[in-house]
Amino acid sequence: MTTVLVFLDHPGASLAKSERELLSLGASLGEVAVALADDADPAYLDGVGSYGVQEVYRPDAAVSEVLVAGKAAFLAGAVRAAGADIVLLGNSYEAKEIAARAGVRLESGVITDVVGLSSDLTATKSDFAGSYTVDCRVTTGVPILTIKPNSVEAVEAGLPSSPREVRIPVELPPAAARVTGRVEKPVSGRPELTEARVIVAGGRGVDGNFGPLEELADALGGAVGASRAATDAGWIEHSAQIGQTGKTVSPQLYISAGISGAIQQKAGMQTSRVIVAINKDADSPVFEIADFGIVGDLFTVLPQATEEIRKRGL
Ligand SMILES: Cc1cc2nc3c(=O)[nH]c(=O)nc-3n(C[C@H](O)[C@H](O)[C@H](O)COP(=O)(O)OP(=O)(O)OC[C@H]3O[C@@H](n4cnc5c(N)ncnc54)[C@H](O)[C@@H]3O)c2cc1C
To answer: Residues in domain Electron transfer flavoprotein alpha/beta-subunit N-terminal (predicted)?
Structure first.
C-alpha cells in the first residue's frame, strides 16, 4: 500500500480548506499519515482522523522557533519513520522552502506549484511566469510535491478515527535566524487569498478606492487582491499582492478590475479557472487572458454587478 505523508504546518481551530484538499488528494493516492509541525486542538486532530489517518508524526523539539530549517529536519525524519512513498505540502513560500530543504536531506526530487496530479504521479504545473503548462515527474527518491490551493476537490471524509501520535527526534540545526516574537494578523472575515474560490483584484485603476471591490467580494464570499501598483501605492496591505513577487492564486473565479495584465501580474493568477477583466482601455493586455471582458469604468461596472448578485441572492 502506498503511504502518503501530508505535512501540515500551522494548525488552526479546525482544518482549513487547503488542508482538506491535501488530505483528500493523499487519500486518493494511498494511506495517509500526517506530519504536524505544531500543537493542535483536539477538534483539529479529529478532522485529521476523519480522513482515515492512523499516525500523526510530531517533532520532539520546538521546530517553529528556528524558521524553516527545523521543520525541514522534522519532515525528513517523519518521511523516514513513516516509510512514506509520496510527500504532499501546501504551496506557501514557507512550505516550498521546507520541501526544498527536506528534498536535499532525503536526496529526493521536489516539484512545486502543482495544479494537477495523475495516479502515476505526473504533476502538472505552470512555468516561466505562466507562459508554459508543464507535465513533470520526480525520478529520484521520494516525490515531494507542493500543491496549489483549489487544484483538487476537498471531499468530506467522515471516517471516525483517532490518530496515534508518534514523536520524531529532531536535532535542531544551528539557528542562523530565530523567531523572536509573533503577532497574529487581524481577522478580516474574508477567506484567505490563496484559498479563496473567488478573488476580486484591483490595480492602479482603483485609484485608492477599494470599496466597490470589497462590496463585490463580500457579495460573492470572496477575497480581495491587488496588483503591485496598488500595494506599492499603499492602498491595500502588501499581503494582498498577487503576481511574481506576490502570492500565486488559482481561484474558480478571478475578477480583475483596473489592472493592465502585465506579465508579472499574470504569473500569479493565470491558472485561475475563469478570468473576468474590467478595464476602460479596450486594448489592455489583460483582455488577452480573460475569459470574459468588460470594457468600462470599474466604478460603474462593479456596483452594478454587486447589486445584481445581491438581488438574485447568489
Ligand atoms: C521584478 C518585478 C516584479 C513584479 N511583480 C509584480 C507582482 O507580483 N504583481 C504585480 O501585479 N505586478 C508586479 N510587477 C509590476 C508590473 O510590471 C506592473 O507594473 C503592474 O502589475 C501594473 O499594475 P496595474 O496593472 O495595476 O497598473 P497599470 O499597468 O498602470 O494599469 C492600470 C490599468 O487600469 C485601467 N484603468 C484605469 N482606470 C480605470 C477605471 N476607472 N476603470 C477600469 N479600468 C481602469 C487602465 O486602463 C490600465 O490598464 C513587477 C515588476 C517587476 C519589474
So the answer is: 4-181
Note whether 292 and 274 are within 8 A (CB). Answer: yes
Answer yes or no: is the C-beta of 217 below 6 A from any ligand 1 atom. no
Residue 244 Cβ inside 6 Å of ligand 1? The answer reads yes
For ligand 1, whether the C-beta of 247 sits within 6 Å is no
Given a contact cutoff of 8 angstroms between Cβ atoms, the answer to whether 20 and 48 are in contact is no
Asked whether 54 lines ligand 1 (CB < 6 A), one says: no
Report which protein residue has its CA nearest ligand 1's atom 8.
243
Span 256-302, pLDDT tens digits = 999 999 999 999 999 899 999 999 999 999 999 999 999 999 999 99
**What does the pLDDT look like over 161-201, one tens digit per residue?**
788 999 999 988 776 677 788 777 666 788 989 889 999 99
As for the ipTM of the complex, it is 0.99
Question: For residues 116 and 26, what is the distance between their CA atoms, to the nearest angstrom?
Answer: 13
Location of C-alpha cell 501530508:
6
Sheet with 198-202, side-by-side order of all strands: 223-226, 198-202, 253-257, 274-279, 292-295
- Judged by DSSP in three states, 8 sits in strand
